[in-house]
Structures are given as C-alpha cells and as structure tokens.
Amino acid sequence: SSSNTSLTLDQVEFVIANANGVAATTGASHSTVSITIVGASGDLAKKKIFPALFALFYDGHLPQHFTVCGYARSKMTDEELRLKISGNLTCRIDRSENCGDKMEEFLKRCFYHPGQYDSLENFAQLNEKLKGHEQGRIAHRLFYLSVPPNVFVDAAKCGSLAASSSTGWTRVIVEKPFGRDSESSAQLTSGLKQYLNEDQIYRIDHYLGKELVENLSVLRFSNLVFEPLWSRKYIRNVQIIFAEDFGTEGRGGYFDRYGIIRDIMQNHLLQIVALFAMEPPVSLDAEDVRNEKVKVVRSMRPLSIEDTAVGQYKGYSKDGVRFPGYTDDSTVPKNSITPTFAAAALFIDNARWDGVPFLMKAGKALQTRRTEIRVQFRHVPGNLFKRNLGTELDKATNELVIRVQPDEAIYLKINNKVPGLGMRLDRSTLDLLYADRYSKEIPDAYERLLLDAIAGERRLFIRSDELDAAWKIFTPLLKDLERKKTAPELYPYGSRGPVGAHYLAAKHNVKWG
Ligand code: NDP
Ligand code: BG6
C-alpha cells in the first residue's frame, strides 16, 4: 500500500500476514510483532521512537498483539524504562479522555533487557524473553538499531543469529549514518549482508517520512498543471534549503566526525532532490519508485569543491546572552574545520534537467529553522507587462515554495493586477497552508516509517544501490575538502550564514529565496 498511515489495525495485520506468506486464514490474532529498540537508553529512542510507537498504538495502527522491548548496555528495570520514556509520550492525534489509560496500556507492553551489542549470549536471553511475551503466536520481529554506527554490524549479527524469528519475518531498521564515504558505506553494507538479506534491511532517512516530502509525488504526478512545467524548459533553478536555529549542542562528538554535508546533504537533501527530479515511476511500488530514484541520482554530476561553500558558526553575544561557537563545545577539538554549514550547486546531466542548477544549502545555528524547496521559474517570454512591473522584473517570475517545516505549506507566487484603476502589478501568493486546510495534526515522520516497516513497505527506505549512487556524488568532494584542509568561513551564531553561499548562488545566476 502507498498510504499506510490510513491503514486500520486489521489491514496492517493482513498486510503482515501476506507479506510473510502466512496464509490469511491463520488469523491475525494468532500473530504478534515484537519490536526491539537496540540502544533504548539513548536520545533518539526516548525522543522519537517510543513516542512514535505510542502514537501509532493510540491511533489504532499497531496490531492487536505486540511487545516493545528496549535493549542496551545500561542497567535498567522495566519500570525504570517506563518511567524514562513516559515523559515524552503525548496524545497528539486526538486529545480524548482516555489518554492516560492508553499510555498505561502501552507502557505495560514495554519491557527492557540489558545486554551487550556483541554478545550472542545476551541476545539469546533476549530471544527467550521475547518468546515468553509472544506466547506461541506466529511472531514477527522488528529490530531498530538506534546505536552509534560502529555497533550496527555487531547488533545485526547477534540479533539475526540469536534472536531472529523462527515463525515470522525478521526486519532490521538501521539508522544513519550509513558510512562516511563510498568505501565505508560499502563495508557497512557488506557487513550487514553477511547476516541479513537486502529485503530485511530498512535504512531509514526520516526526511522521507515527512508529510510534504511524501506529498512531492502527489503534487507532481496527480496535478496536470505542474508536471508539464517540470523541466529545464520552464524551471530556472531549484533550491533545497535546510536551516536550524540551534547548534550541535550535545552532539558535538558525533557531528565533528561527520559534518553537515554528511549529516544533512548526502541523505535528507539528496533524497528530496531525487523525488523532485525523478521520472514518473511505473507504479507506486517500492521497487518502481526506488528504480527511478537510483536512475536520477546516477545522472547527477559528482559535486566539485569549486561549486561548494562551507562555513562554521562562531560564538556570538547579544543583549548579554552568549551563544557558543561550534568549537566552544568541549567534545569538539578547538582547531576543528568541520563544516556546520554548506552550500553546493548540483547538476543533473539528463534530458530533463540539463543546465538547471539545484542549489542545496544546509546549516546549523542560523537565524531561523526551516526546510524548504523553492522552484524558480523562467521569465515570461516577451512579457506584455514589463513596464507595469517596474524595476522588480527579476523578482516577477513565478516561484513555487514547498515548505517542509515548520508550518507546512505549499504556495505559488504569481503576478497579479493591483485592484483599481490603472495597471499596476504586484506579487501575490496562491497559498495552501496546511494548518488552515487540514484540522488533523500531521504525524511525526517516525510514525509513518515504523508503520511501513511493520507492514513490509520499503518505498520510503533507502536501497543499497541508491546509497552507493548517493555516495558517488559526495565522496570526491568530501575527500577534496579533507585533503585540501579547506577552512570554513566563520559565521556568527544566529546569522544568515557565510557570504560564500551568496557568491556561489550568484555564480549560477541565482538569488537565494
Ligand atoms: P546515543 O549516543 O544516545 O546512543 C544510543 C545508545 O547507544 C546509548 O544510550 C548507549 O547505550 C549506546 N552507545 C553510545 N555510545 C556507544 C558506543 N561508543 N559504543 C556502544 N554503545 C554506545 O545516540 P542517539 O540515540 O542520539 O542516536 C542513535 C542512532 O540514531 C545513531 O546512529 C545516530 O546517528 C542516529 N540518529 C540520531 C538522531 C538524534 O536526533 N538523536 C537523529 C538521526 C539519526 P548504552 O550505553 O546503554 O548501551
Ligand atoms: C538528523 C541530523 O538526521 O536530522 C540532525 O543528524 C538534525 O543534525 C536532524 O538536527 C533534523 O531533523 P528534523 O526532523 O528535526 O528536521
């Protein structure tokens, strides 16, 4: 299914039964799903994974029988785990009265098992514990590897050898980062594939679970008005902008090894470009969509250092408040040249996009938090209204903005006659603001992705050939930056970022939106 978030509990169970080749006649109530969060003591588990599972449960999307088990090295009892996660559970979807009851019901199904990530013995004990909860039902097992990447292969090995399901499917969600470059990514893939088949591996990129990213294909392929314009013929440039108004606080250790290009561009932004630019897929089936994504990513030219600008935020004081610089973080080396900001011009060498710059920009500690796709269209040829547009002719081209977050929206900037006598034009917007149009709260990306993994829907997960193609675009640039020890341009915390990004845009005749 392509719209799993609207699946009912029965439908999910039906999908699970079928995906596993289990005859539907075995009855959904005879099966159960055990979800093990490996690294359950960590930040992501607490902030995202447990709350997403609760939201799914609350909304009736989880199967009738399920268990959630936290696994990590820290010593914790079931009760301690429940206490730790309960503060982050919210009844976001429908604030009805039974919220507290539902939370209690959910927490009763959450357990904890302490163990090492490389211990077959500890995973075998986990296996016994899961079996106890599964009570002889057909048991499907989902493992979520929410641990640092150096532990991925060990955990996949022990999970698959000592705790995989003997009666149902076993699937493993793997968090990013999937390597640091082509070689390390290939190594990780081959490490995982020693113990898992590709169709058991769910590489997560949570941006693919975001509502407006998921909507890109709907916008393009179900509206006649957009698709004919979707090429070099009518589009001047495309901008994919990611900005956060906070720094790497608390994650400096991880971040310094990766940097913004690996943390945001190689995955989240590239995935957006792929969905934006791919050819129409044969169908919405996972393999058809992913085939098209791989195709377009393979047509992208590897990024060059000449078409890239990098920056790093520095400390800034305002009204007596001090905002720390990146290297002020005690877990970051004082002489670090890791970029916390990058802008790059990407080109797709195919018939549809030849010559159109796709400008990506990603930065931490900037003025605002936003993720947007901005599509700037060409000038109207022989525009009859040149004079009425005054000196603002350049701004007078149409622009489509897809605001992924916050305040999800899609709007189109058009030229319009200012009402009244005379003929003066101004810029107006046709506006679809989600909060005004839809009353239901938008589910978190992790909800959609967890539900898909349970249902065996792989469309929104990254296939290994997609990953290889993605690294091919970024690896030469990353190596070049490292070899040349390129110093990032410093920008103050809370600013608009380094001016280098503007020079880069100007070089390609683009103005950032
Ligand atoms: P944490 O650093 O909190 O690690 C999770 C758990 O792994 C810890 O609680 C710890 O558990 C164990 N752990 C930590 N360091 C090590 C180590 N060196 N060796 C073995 N075990 C270790 O990570 P997050 O929860 O923040 O992230 C989990 C995964 O998700 C990572 O791969 C991260 O890159 C990715 N991710 C995180 C995001 C976030 O917002 N946090 C966003 C996107 C991706 P214990 O000591 O109890 O075993
Ligand atoms: C993660 C990055 O993948 O995405 C973080 O590792 C970043 O550095 C985060 O903050 C942003 O996600 P979101 O959903 O808050 O935009």
Which secondary structure elements does this structure contain, and how are they paired or packed?
Blueprint: H1 9-19, E1 31-38, H2 43-58, E2 66-72, H3 78-86, H4 99-108, E3 110-114, H5 120-134, E4 138-145, H6 152-163, E5 170-174, H7 182-193, E6 201-203, H8 211-221, E7 235-243, H9 252-277, H10 286-298, E8 308-314, E9 316-318, E10 321-323, E11 341-346, E12 358-363, E13 370-377, E14 399-405, E15 409-417, E16 425-433, H11 434-437, H12 445-455, H13 464-483, E17 489-492, H14 500-507
Parallel strand pairs: 1-2, 1-4, 2-3, 4-5, 5-6, 7-12, 8-17
Antiparallel strand pairs: 7-13, 8-11, 9-10, 11-12, 13-14, 14-15, 15-16
Helix pairs in contact: 2-12, 5-6, 7-13, 9-10, 9-13, 10-13
The structure holds NADPH dihydro-nicotinamide-adenine-dinucleotide phosphate (NDP) and 6-O-phosphono-beta-D-glucopyranose.
What does this structure look like?
With 513 residues, the protein is of the alpha/beta class. It contains 14 helices and 17 strands. The strands form 3 sheets. A 9-stranded mixed β-sheet has the order 16-15-14-13-7-12-11-8-17, sandwiched between helices. A 6-stranded parallel β-sheet has the order 3-2-1-4-5-6. It has a two-stranded antiparallel sheet with strand order 9-10. Helix 2 links the parallel strand 1 (31-38) and strand 2 (66-72). The longest helix is centred in the middle third of the chain and has 26 residues, at 252-277. The chain is globular and about 80 Å long. The protein starts with 8 loop residues before the first helix and ends in a 6-residue tail after the last helix. Bound molecules: NADPH dihydro-nicotinamide-adenine-dinucleotide phosphate and 6-O-phosphono-beta-D-glucopyranose. NADPH dihydro-nicotinamide-adenine-dinucleotide phosphate is lined by residues 39, 41-45, 72-74, 117, 146-149, 151, 175-177, 254.
